Amino acid sequence: MTEHAAPDIDTARTTPDDTGMTAPAGRRRPSRTVRTIRIAGISLLGLIAAAVIAFLVWANITFSATEAGLAAARADDRIAIRVDGDLVVMEPTGDPSPELQDQGLVFLAGAKVDPEAYVPTFREAVAEGLTVVIVRPILNMAIIEGRDFSTFTAAAPDVTTWAVGGHSQGGVRACTYAERDDVTGLVLLGSYCSLGDLSDRDDLSAIAITGSRDGLLKRDAADASRELMPAHTEYVELDGVNHAQFGDYGPQPGDKDADVSDDEARAKISAAILDFFARS
């Protein structure tokens, strides 16, 4: 009887896997440790992505301007208001007072506050002749704002003398812009300088306006920060005014109740700002 040769089997090309089944040797399954690391890495990336999304959603939920205050400012024919991207530009429509001629203020909104909420704050100052450019910071967080100062001043090219200011966190960031030689003034509302050292700026006019009922301003930190300010800085505390009244966006968690009405607070703030610019 003729013997039949057994078929050639290339045993080098097959290997048993963990289940006892054979798989090509060149496609060996990754070890259990490698698989665990991969799963952990994918999970970590998922958590990071979720955290980023949550932050973006949170950052874009802002304190909105009250409709009444904004409508009253828009109806005021002494001023013109326009929105230019992330900027709210306020300009006088009549002849400015001699003290405010060609003066402008770049103002950074507080954290998560709609820039239009500060339109009522500067309504009277603008009516007197001050040009104000209110900035919506990147992601509504002034502390991470990194655009050049000229990005904001370009919105009002006729202004020749610029000051910078801000409310709360916006004021902290404004202090770093105030280090520039082309900035001649600094206006802080419910804020202080924790970034930037302005102590050697003898040529920089500066005012820090606070409220006696401000529940969010860190008093100890504000007092300690005075060493970073110009020696001639003016400090003004407005009786009865709280943190949120530097804008017009309603109550803010953590703040104290004000002892004065919003209209009275706004009149006090406007008077302090106008007095500052008249003397700058």
From TrEMBL:
Residues 105-264 form the Alpha/beta hydrolase fold-5 domain. The chain crosses the membrane at residues 37-58. One of its GO terms (molecular function) is hydrolase activity. Residues 1-30 are annotated as: Disordered. Pfam families: Abhydrolase_5. Residues 1-11 have a biased composition (Basic and acidic residues). Keywords: Hydrolase, Membrane, Transmembrane, Transmembrane helix. This is Alpha/beta hydrolase. It comes from Microbacterium imperiale.
